[in-house]
Amino acid sequence: MPAMIRITVGVLLFLSMACPLLAAPATPKSPDALTPVMAGEFALQAGQLPEASRWYLQAAQADDDAGLAERATRIALLANDDASATQALKLWRQRAPQSLAMRAAEAALALRKNDAPSAQRELDALLRDKEDMGWRYALTVLGSGGRDPALSARLLDGFVDAGAIPSNLQAWLAFGGLAQSLEQPKLAERIVGEAVKRFPSEPRVALLHASQLRQAGDTEQARKILAGLSSAAVLTPEMRLAIAAEYDAMSDPKQAAATLARGPQDNQTYGLRASLLAKAEDTMTLTVLYDELRKEGSNPDPERRLLIGQIAQFLKRPQEALDWYRGVPGGPQRTEARLRIANVLFELGHKEEAFADARALQGDAGADDEARRGAYLLEAELKQKDDDDAGELDVLARGLAAYPDDNALLYARGLAWERRDRIDRAEADLRKILVTDPENVAALNALGYTLADRTTRYQEALELIDRARAAEPDEAAIIDSYGWVLYRLGRNAEALVELRRAFTLQKDAEIAAHIAEVLWFTGKREEARKFFEESRKLDAENRSLQRALEKTGA
């Protein structure tokens, strides 16, 4: 269960254009459908997806509403109930034969059954849709609809052969990004090469080409392409950000910062440059930037003063950072400055003063509740850094006394208990969140993952994770949790499908470690070692990685 951070990479930029996996519940026209709809919703909210699938199919059979058939299909797909999905999809096809979403569901179901001819037929129809929406559905299906990424890659390769990819820039950029996310270097090279031929003067295609070359290991050629985009870097702020991201991905944050330095500057650009220069340990250039910005320090711009203070911290000048933060005037930035002051005081070794400042904000009646809660969370974090286990828990207890049953504080304490192997207490805090907020996705996922990872209550864990999946079916952290509980249930082949899908969506050390462990215990040890190495590159200190290495002896 990696951090639940929504990212936008490659194909994900376009997935949001397609319809969500679960539409809102339809209102049945027939009274015969009302009872199964209600039962299906209760089952869905309880995380009992097979039951929800059965009830919704019954509702769709009792009512001629296309929306019910659609919802029954989608819930059956989520429940991995291919038989019910087939029946519900037949009803949906009868009621909405021209629906692009229906054809996408047919393609997804065919992919799951490894029925390549049927999947190809439906995807081809979507790609040839003249309303410029069909290819977006096809993209979604190929990216996340099947169980075998290799089959998706083969189909996409065939569509390139057949000239089925629409002749517009967005489509070629999207399918190029999809090939990269599927980790199919030859296919990515082919699609990107074709895009370059079709759109030779388009900077975004050149950028995609550079990204493809970088992933293929040809960083020298990738750099040449990026260097040729210098004029675009000046003219378009978005392109500057994208080019900088490519340099950063090539472990060249200094050049990334230099790219951002071209063209108009604002606080966001200055902040990104400072972060990159700090990452590059380029103290000389960072000092030049610091000196440039602090000349304007007399201007009481709160955001700018926060930024200059942050750069002072990067330069390991905590006392100067403290002065800048203390000079931030009133308003919301003042609250953030107070939190940063406590951090800097802790960094300076003035721990008691840091804790006192955090407590002062906690008790400030003039501060809003969000700021005061943030001060409790900060003090707890500082206590954790100070290896003060009892102190961390005491702070969170005080926070919960001031803000009873606050979800953020309960969540933080639940994770703190989990780190101490007090799974019973972690569970109690996460369940308190679910009492007041039964659909809290983060809590559902955290509790489900904890039960799967640290207990043998796998069926209970599965139901909790399924509730989270129903709410956010394309969230990498939840897909990872789902794959992990499948592994714990002994369903290794299914687990690998989900874990690989999660890693496609988010390159995370914990997900990579999970894939490595499953591969190791299914006898694929060479591939497992590759994922262990990938996990180390992303975060060598990751707890799941350390546990997996200990368990496997890899």
From TrEMBL:
The keyword Signal applies. The keyword Signal applies. It holds the Pfam family TPR_8. Residues 1-23 form the signal peptide. It comes from the Bacteria. Keywords: Signal. InterPro entries: TPR-like_helical_dom_sf (IPR011990), TPR_rpt (IPR019734). This is Tetratricopeptide (TPR) repeat protein. It comes from Pseudoxanthomonas sacheonensis.
